Amino acid sequence: MREISLDDIKLPQEFPYLIKTSHGLSCEGTYIIKNSGDLQYSLLELRKYLDINLLDTIIFSEFVKDEVENYCVQFYVNKAGEVSLIGVTGQLVTSMVNYTRSILIFVLMVQLLYVYNVIPY
Fold it and tell me: Which UniProt keywords apply (predicted)?
């Protein structure tokens, strides 16, 4: 983001889509863009991150429609490149995509440990 202006980025032409920043915690830095109002709000927030040098990358992604479940996988990658699984949660959201709470999914954590051979935290 140091080489290009936010105004010069070509945005997706059709709604909905996601904007995800290179930093974030929980849903901070993730924006669901359903209309031009959502876009204007996200651009204001992105400018704040740029002003304090907290933004290196912006990712645009299509919005997953008709989802069945919403999972969040927390992991840590150390300097040697080793991955440590911290946890897996099921994100509980309303039909308007408002976050309500998370629940720990132990079975999914065990499957990830087995399939990807990651080091438990």
Answer: Membrane, Transmembrane, Transmembrane helix
